[in-house]
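PROTEIN–LIGAND DATA SHEET

This sheet pairs a single protein chain with one bound small molecule, zinc ion, given as SMILES. Inputs appear in the order they were entered. The predicted three-dimensional arrangement of chain and ligand is reported afterwards as a token string under its own label.
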Amino acid sequence: MAIGRAVKNHKVGEMVGVTWINSACGKCEFCKKGMENLCENMKFTGYDENGGYAEYIVVADDYAFKIPKGFDEAHASPLFCAGIIGYRAFKLSAVKKGDKLAMFGFGGSAHIIIQVARYLGIETLVFTRDEKHQKEAKSLGAAWVGKPDSKPPYLFDSAIIFAPDGRLVPYALKNLKRGGNVTIADIYMSRIPELDYGLLYEERSVKSVANYTRGDAREFLDLAAKIPIKTQIREFTLEETNNAMLLLKQSKIGGSAVIRVGR
Ligand SMILES: [Zn+2]
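PREDICTION REPORTED AS:
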């Protein structure tokens, strides 16, 4: 076992996590402005660089993050994808202590972010059609749960949409306070239906989330240890990956699916 000569942040034998971002260039206009999450030359793990489903991976010092205290590798895994992107969405939603945050969809990411919200004194309303997910949301401290098109008891300050369904955007806007925002935490989303301008008027906004900065990742992983976040996982072997994907699609996994590669 060895580390490269330029490695400063890690020691031999330390447990680290690598995310889907293998590197940002540090040179493009976005990197220079501190918006490395929007880097034009970003390299993705398992897409541009090998190692996504492998026993070994090469990654720059600064793109490997220490596994937070109190986590084993399997329970830490969801933090490194669902957790970090959810946290970026949470930050963009700009909610503060005492605010009300709506969450649409209750998969792996929302399971984690509801715990962050609760820790920071933010009230959550969870919209999901799946009754099992509604129960999970309640048990994790949601103040109210309902179906995506139900009318909540009060308006909320911000919303995060986790499910990749464009129809949720007008549902979220309908119950959003003036000046509030809807953040979409998805890479893909089905078509957003035509909107009445009245839903957006009064300075409401809709935005998407792309990737994260290393600062976001460090901040979130520190918080994960402090809270401490409990991740719900179901483990699969590499050979069972197709089945895991199918179960995820059918909403049959509470929390996150974790693929164990190697031992
Ligand atoms: Zn760049």
